[in-house]
Predict the 3D structure of the following.
Amino acid sequence: MSVNAPLLSGENLTRHYDIAGKRFGEKLSVKALQGVSFRLDKGETLAVVGESGCGKSTLARLITMIEPPTEGSFRIGDTVVDKKTGRPDKDLRAAVQIVFQDPYSSLNPRQKIGTILAEPLLINRPDISREDREKKARDMLALVGLRPEHYDRYPHMFSGGQRQRIAVARALMMNPKVLVLDEPVSALDLSVQAQILNLLVDLQDEFGLAYLFISHDLSVVKHMADRVMVMYLGRPVEYGERDEIFGNPRHPYTKALLSATPIADPERPKQRLKLEGELPSPINPPAGCAFHPRCPIAISRCAADRPDLAPVAGRDVACWRADEA
Ligand SMILES: Nc1ncnc2c1ncn2[C@@H]1O[C@H](COP(=O)(O)OP(=O)(O)OP(=O)(O)O)[C@@H](O)[C@H]1O
Ligand SMILES: [Mg+2]
């Protein structure tokens, strides 16, 4: 692996879901993800933001190998995964772990915490002794701020925040390089959110973890991200450094998202831009730029040609008018 190769990178990642029915004689499919490319380096956080249904969790399912891409590929270290890759080997799957939004449904209610934590090792690393497995599980409990006696308790005995600590501990059992965090604090009370976010920052510093951080909450993203990818209807529309994107957004969709969120920042110019209309269907996305029916600055070209991401003002933007904005 070359020195500058990213830890994880995606190339044209695409995922379509076939659904029942036909339109103009063609089988229908949901275009959940359409040609997403990105890189993620050791120790950094890339945030993925966008409205519900824009493909954030789909991206998460691809890179955690829960399901394969329809097109495109991603690379972890020297290994490339695409639609032809069969079941990837255990080391590869261990490298990318996920924490889901809902701490109430993600832990098996019939298993003790110790069992929940030890299970990934039991399945994937039969060479590790029972003693070592249990020791590692206890170490992980301490690492995420829980107590040794919690080892023998059941999930229902914990609060939402504690359960999310357990989910993080379980994700860390396999010594991953990348954690995919899919709305990890959205289900928690505000005060608890801050505790979990701080824990994640500490763990990242300690282990050099890379985070793919999915969130619709821009104030959380601003706190956590090094870089940001803004998605609309399965495609990235703006991608770059956090400060560039929050300080000087260039895509009209990013501007609309930011102006809808109260983020205390005296340096950010006051731009009010209201998002009109409904999110179009990913089964039949608009021609040209998918955002054009809702875009306040669209021109006729936007309805005909789809702009690709291109460098503008120190980040990448997919907008014909990004230079003027
Ligand atoms: N198995 C599936 N079959 C058909 N459509 C699907 C399937 N999984 C996801 N979709 C559709 O793909 C699109 C993207 O879904 P995804 O869950 O990735 O969105 P999201 O950005 O994570 O949204 P949210 O913020 O609500 O979590 C949505 O339109 C969704 O309905
Ligand atoms: Mg989701």
